[in-house]
């Protein structure tokens, strides 16, 4: 391990030639500004760097780590399907960071392929990426990150999946060139070696896990290894590291919802990391963890209360399929007879009978669809999920 310096190295830069496409569309001024060389980042290799963090920040990170573990254990012991519910909320929050928003209803419709919302379909793709991250948690390497990205974009943009980027990308400053960008990630030729280095860093066992995750995420976003989907893939990697580090074992802690709670701080921390400061991104992840757990508990309590109310208004035999249907509605709050039959392994006649009982009890209501494909929604669940999203978007600054 390198112990020569206790300072984290800042990103360096190199000047590269810019080759215009020749068919650029823009004002004469903007086209003129896109001529000539540009500066691209050279991120430091971090696999063997010494990680030294002030004791106060490490103590806060330790407190956050303990809260994550407690939340995971407590919620994981509940009988409701909170693993699926929190996976969806984390995926939706991570997408919201990129201004990809969807209501809970549209997301539920997209999951049964009945939504016309492009954003909702993108969030469902993010659910797949998060699932891939969890499934690959025991073998996090460069190929597993490519698999997460493939799960995210294989339907909407398959041409850029399956490999690292081979084009220059930039953040901000318009689409003509990187000259006016807020940040220009490294040239594509540098990406494979940097990602191998990053994934080696994620395998270290000598760094407090939450600090390691925060640094790895900042490095990932600095390398920006794909043409698109970097933010969502990078936050999926966070979940993979939480599970791989055995901090979460049962459910997903919606860290992205916590980052969304104070988005300016998150962006500022990424910028500070590139200037050689790791403390801000660790602090951002610490606060995001606390905010995510607070918000997560409100959601869990709301859904528990909803299920208790349902149990009080609908009495059925212990072997009745309506009990399984009530549980299904917590993770899939918009259903049809077909999706219930498939989800519970019963006939469509039995599924429709169960749906009708829940409609009569006020648990479900018809939400659209024709005579042959009627849709039903559990409004209380949708409202609880939308309330979670609203709390996540509400900035914690000044509170």
From TrEMBL:
SUPFAM superfamilies, per this entry?
A: Fic-like
Which Gene3D superfamilies does the record match to this protein?
A: Fido-like domain
Q: Which InterPro entries match?
A: Fic/DOC_N, Fido, Fido-like_dom_sf, Fido_containing
Instruction: Outline the extent of the Fido domain.
Output: 140-287
Q: List the protein's name.
A: Fic family protein
């Amino acid at each position: 391990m390198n112990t020569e310096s206790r300072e984290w190295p800042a990103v360096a830069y190199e000047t590269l030639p810019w080759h215009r496409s020749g068919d650029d569309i823009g004002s004469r001024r903007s086209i003129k500004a896109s001529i000539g060389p540009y500066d691209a980042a050279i991120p430091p290799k971090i696999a063997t760097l010494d990680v030294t963090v002030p004791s106060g920040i490490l103590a806060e990170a330790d407190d956050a780590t303990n809260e994550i573990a407690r939340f995971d254990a407590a919620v994981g012991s509940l009988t409701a399907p909170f693993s699926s519910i929190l996976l969806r909320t984390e995926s939706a929050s991570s997408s919201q960071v990129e201004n990809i928003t969807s209501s809970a209803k549209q997301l539920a419709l997209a999951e049964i392929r009945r939504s016309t919302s492009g954003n909702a379909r993108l969030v469902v793709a993010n659910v797949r990426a998060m699932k891939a991250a969890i499934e690959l948690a025991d073998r996090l390497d460069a190929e597993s990150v490519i698999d997460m990205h493939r799960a995210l974009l294989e339907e909407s943009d398959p041409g850029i999946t399956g490999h690292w980027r081979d084009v220059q990308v930039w953040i901000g400053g318009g689409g003509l060139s990187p000259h006016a960008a807020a940040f220009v990630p490294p040239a594509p030729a540098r990406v494979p070696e940097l990602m191998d280095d990053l994934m080696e860093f994620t395998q270290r066992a000598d760094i407090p896990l939450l600090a390691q995750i925060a640094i790895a995420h900042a490095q990932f976003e600095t390398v920006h290894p794909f043409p698109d989907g970097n933010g969502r893939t990078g936050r999926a990697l966070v979940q993979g590291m939480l599970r791989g580090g055995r901090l979460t074992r049962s459910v997903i802690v919606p860290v992205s919802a916590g980052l969304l709670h104070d988005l300016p701080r998150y962006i500022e921390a990424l910028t500070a990391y590139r200037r050689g400061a790791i403390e801000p991104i660790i602090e951002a992840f610490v606060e995001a963890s606390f905010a995510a757990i607070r918000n997560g508990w409100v959601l869990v309590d709301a859904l528990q209360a909803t299920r208790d109310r349902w149990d009080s208004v609908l009495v059925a035999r212990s072997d009745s399929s309506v009990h399984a249907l009530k549980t299904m509605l917590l993770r899939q709050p918009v259903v049809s007879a077909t999706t219930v039959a498939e989800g519970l392994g019963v006939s469509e006649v039995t599924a429709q009978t169960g749906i009708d009982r829940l409609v009569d009890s006020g648990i479900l209501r018809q939400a659209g669809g024709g005579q042959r494909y009627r849709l039903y929604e559990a409004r209380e669940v949708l409202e609880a999920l939308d309330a979670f999203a609203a709390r996540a978007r509400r900035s914690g600054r000044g509170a």
